[in-house]
Amino acid sequence: VGYRFPSGGNGSTWFSEVDFLSDEEVKGYGPAPMVYLHGDVQASREKIWKAITGTEYARSLGKKFKQEAFFSSDWTDKAEAHLTYEWDGEKATGYVGMVYGNLYLQIDYDRDGEHFTEKLMVGQNRETGASELHVVSGPYTQGIEAQSGVWETWFQEVKRKCEKK
Predict the structure, then answer these.
(1) Is the bond leading into 33 cis (omega within 30 degrees of zero)?
(2) 33 pLDDT band (50/70/90 cuts)?
(3) How many helices (H) and strands (E) does the chain have?
(4) What gap in Å lies between CA 45 and CA 40, rounded to an integer?
(5) How far, in Å, CA of 28 to CA of 59, rounded?
(6) What is the DSSP string of 19-59?
(7) What confidence tens digit (pLDDT) does each residue in 61-75 have?
(8) With contact defined as beta carbons under 8 Å apart, do 64 and 84 qualify?
(9) In angstroms, how far is CA 140 from the centroid of its own chain?
(10) How many CB atoms lie within 10 A of CB 66?
């Protein structure tokens, strides 16, 4: 079953793992700001992956999840990594690989009972060679403007690295 968190984001799971909330319970969560970015990038998935892995964000993921080799390797459609991490009240699980023809990264964090997610997706138009990059991150209970700026800077860095001649 697919679902949407009351605090933002979405996911999928087995039906037996779902708890349904009343309207009052959902309202109790209140709004949860998410960062949503997307845009066209004139590059292949492989070139976008190379640009992503050249960022501090990818290097930090490699270190955190002990997947440095994966986050510095070239992209192939068979590449994938399963990510797990637990330290000081934070747990995280994630996946990087191909999902329905798209390069996809999703990491779900549990920070002392609070859910947080980071998702990147790269879809490619094989005819034109152009790709679309999507970023979703949050929810941010504080500092959404600053986090939006951080992700926008990252997005533009990736785009610039991909599109430079």
Answers:
(1) no
(2) confident
(3) 4, 8
(4) 12
(5) 37
(6) ----HHHHHHH-----EEEEEEESS-HHHHHHHHHTSHHHH
(7) 999 999 999 999 999
(8) no
(9) 14
(10) 11
Smallest CA-to-CA distance from 123 within 99, 151, 106 is with: 99
CB 2 within 8 A of CB 12: yes
CB-neighbour burial class of residue 92 (10 A; exposed 0-12, middle 13-18, buried 19+): buried
Report which DSSP code applies to 77: T
The 10 Å Cβ neighbour count of residue 87 is 8
In this structure, are residues 131 and 139 in contact, taking their beta carbons and an 8 Å threshold? no
3-state percent helix, strand, coil for the chain, nearest multiple of 5:
30, 35, 35
Q: Give tens-digit pLDDT for 102-156.
A: 999 999 999 878 888 999 999 987 777 789 999 999 988 888 999 999 999 999 9
- The model scores a pTM over 0.85: no
- Closest residue by Cα to residue 37 from 141, 117, 136, 162: 136
Lookup: tokens for 159: 């785009």
Average pLDDT for 47-54: 93
- Residues 81, 89: Cα–Cα separation, whole Å: 23
Helices 144-163/45-53 angle, 10° precision: 120
